[in-house]
Amino acid sequence: DILGRVLARIWIDNRFRDRFAANPKGLLAAHDVHLPSEIEIGFEDDGQRRPCVIVQERRGHGLPPRRLLYLQLVMVAGR
User: Fold this and answer.
1) Is residue 13 left, alpha or beta, with left meaning phi > 0 and alpha meaning psi from -120 to 50?
2) pLDDT single digits (tens) 30-56
């Protein structure tokens, strides 16, 4: 829920997006959201597609990180 809100704000607030891109865990900590040290947050925004947030878990020496979550806003139309 929290990262969904972050992603929505990234979409509409360029300054917030730039701060999140530079230091995702630091920005979350500034808003009292603290994550364990083994959790990494990545942010991708190449300007041609919707931005996304990737949450990964570091698993130890020699092992690649394990992706836990991938968030991307999707627009859905209904009637």
Assistant:
1) beta
2) 999 999 999 999 888 876 677 889 999
The alpha-carbon radius of gyration of the chain (Å, integer) is 14
Q: Which amino acid is at 55?
A: V
CB distance 25 to 35 below 8 Å: yes
- The Cβ of residue 16 has, within 10 Å, a number of other Cβ atoms equal to 14
Residue type at 65 in one-letter notation: P
Rounded CA-CA distance 6/71 in Å is 10
Q: pLDDT tier at 59 (50, 70, 90 boundaries)?
A: confident
Q: Name the band, by pLDDT with cuts 50, 70 and 90, for residue 71.
A: confident
Q: Which of 26, 31, 39, 44 is nearest to 5 (CA)?
A: 31
